Amino acid sequence: MMHAILRLAQPLALLLAVAASPAHAHDHSFGTHGMVLFGGREGLYASHLPLFRAPHDRQVVLEVRLSDPALDRALRERLEGQNALWTIEPERFQLSRLDPASAAPLRAFDAGVYEGHFERKGKLTHEKAGFIVERVLVYRRLDPGARVRAQARYLPMGRFLVKEIDSRPDVDHIVALRAARTGIVTIPKAGLGNPEEVLGRAAPLAGTVYFETEDLR
Description:
With 217 residues, the chain is an alpha+beta fold. It has one domain (30-216). The chain has helices at residues 2-20, 69-79, 195-200, and strands at residues 30-31, 35-40, 43-48, 58-66, 86-90, 93-94, 108-115, 123-141, 151-157, 160-163, 172-177, 185-188, 205-212. The N and C termini lie far apart (63 Å). Mean pLDDT is 88; it is low at 1-25.
């Protein structure tokens, strides 16, 4: 009888240990994480479309490539020198796996590729393209508390600048440059009312790729 109880107790103890393990704790970042796709021959980038609530409460920017070399080359050529909006709709995954400190980092995912915004009548050009994560360039958990900073920082990504989301409300802003740069660009937060004019004084702009305010109120 005692042996039978022990045999029953062992699987139960294992189940409780797995449930208590941080690796199996409920992760509120699971979902469909749409991203802006931008870049060209020198680099291809994907910027998560964030909100101030789970599962999208992280700013994430990736350097990526497509697993199909021919499609990778074709898409880079299509994006080269363009400011038009492209987005991807990835398969569902835990956004926390893109944290560089993750115990189970996400190395690849499949996604639909859209010319335009995938949730706003964008045109599907590739239904299930394989993406490989080359580098995580930005990973920041967003603070839902309302606050305002005096300065806005734009992070360089080749010939693009991506605004660091650091306040609430804020804007999700990606601009294309006429030439690649390496330094961070800082402008007064008051300049976001007309950001292209203000940014243009610090960097030679080619145009705006993405500008969104409603999602970050």
